[in-house]
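Continuing from the previous page...

OK, I double-checked the sequence for MerR family transcriptional regulator against my notes and this is the correct one:
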Amino acid sequence: MTYSIGQVAEKTGLSTYTLRYYDREGLMPFVKRAPSGRREFTDDNLDFLDLITCLKDTGMQLSEIRHFVELAMQGDATLETRLNIFKQQQQAVRDQIAQAKRHLAKLDYKVRFFTAACDAGTEAAVSGDCELPGQPIVIDESLRVKKAHPA
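Thanks. Re-ran it with the corrected sequence; updated structure tokens here:
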């Protein structure tokens, strides 16, 4: 079965503009064209587009993706090179995950800190070191702002 560029845009969530751009950038040499010049995508092309999207979403530059596509078009002679590309990208994603975990830990602390500050009525009453995971939040009761009680 073949798909038009509009159908592929619907299936992948990529815009027709993006698909045409990818084609111009040499990322889709595998897509055949009808005699009229219209792109005809296959299920295999959709799988490859999914891989391109994955690589892009994990931070790979379009020039690097183009290089990978060129290698893939050469076939089995480039298997080891492509394996190494995937290993490098795999490590890059692991590094991104580790960085995201560090960011999340800091945000978790800040949520706890500001929750305590809201409870105390002031940031001045709250202490704790956000650089240390699991660091307790301490509220100095002498600095707590007394909330007015409704009469």
